[in-house]
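Example: Zinc ribbon domain-containing protein YjdM.
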Amino acid sequence: MDTLPSCPKCSSAYTYEDGSLIVCPECGHEFTLEADTENSEQSKVIKDANGNELTDGDTVTVLKDLKVKGSSSVIKMGTKVKGIRLVEGDHDIDCKILGLGAMKLKSEFVKKV
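Written out as structure tokens, the predicted fold is:
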């Protein structure tokens, strides 16, 4: 018996075959072996406001004043952010800003230096 791959969404090992699909009972994700290999090869490309491709470790500059949610602080236009990390989600940049700490930014409000 062949061993089935773990779920690409939640990493559950309890997947099972249902016809031509592989199903995860924990999160309900359905996938095929072909789609699983395609997704691992093609990751989402994140681009800055000018269309330049961003990668982990890049330095970016903030393009406009950004209000910090839950605080009266503001990230000023022109602030340099070093060593960004790309993550999945709405706010696709994870970084540390001097004086403010850990933040999540949207790539549409930064440009690559």
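The chain is about 10% helix and 30% strand.
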